[in-house]
Amino acid sequence: MYKNLLMSIYEFLWKNKSIHGTLCLQREKWGNLMTKLISNIFEIPDIIYHGTDISSVPSIEREINLHHNPRRRPDFSTGFYTTANYKQAKDWAEFKGAFSDNSICGSVVSFQVDREKLNTLNSLFFLEVDEHWARFILANRSKKFPNEETLHNRDAKFDLVYGPLADGNKISNLIRNYEKGYYKSIEAFIEDVKCVKYPFPKDHQISFHTEIAKSCLTMRGVDIIDTANDGSRIVN
Known about the structure:
Organism: Bacillus subtilis subsp. subtilis
InterPro entries: DUF3990 (IPR025051)
Order of helices and strands: HHEHEHEHEHEHHEHEE
Number of strands: 8
Largest sheet: 4 strands, antiparallel
Strand order of the largest sheet: 1-3-7-8
Distance between the termini: 16 Å
Protein name: DUF3990 domain-containing protein
Number of domains: 1
Strand content: 15-25%
Structural class: alpha+beta
Shape: globular
Low-confidence stretches: 9-22
């Protein structure tokens, strides 16, 4: 029912082109102001964003699923990934829509952050693309479970993690090559794994990994991204 409601509003906005994109553009401009380095949990903005497709919105509204795809091994381990950069979330939503041959619209879901709860979380912040960040990603993404001395988040010891994005298009192959000893140094691996398309800190990821962490988020609104027509439709 909720999906049908979203699509009905989408159709209304499509017919009333004078209001197309206004709120999206405002949010994009505001989001771009929030793309400086976030050095600690107190600097996370009050509104953050999640890029997805419209078919996923009803389930997100019901409950954020921290284990949506347990077979995937994301950079900071299984969790719910967001960003303070609206444009970054919008780009990802457009990718999700295009990935479905434009049959499903992309969507940007905005969340209000409960600052009081947020400030109690056990968090980890990576402030640059460096060896510590690269080894953390290796430990989370590798098929081999890391040893006790290796910093990782497969056990969700960190409620929230912030840092740069790895290059998701080739990360799996890069990690396999590293494990096979093809890299002569961690520096060479870092050079290949850092994401050129999404430069840090403008683009980044804020991931939530525990029940207490996701309880900090309240869904605030949805922007529907029309990938077929390169425009934005707003649902609040």
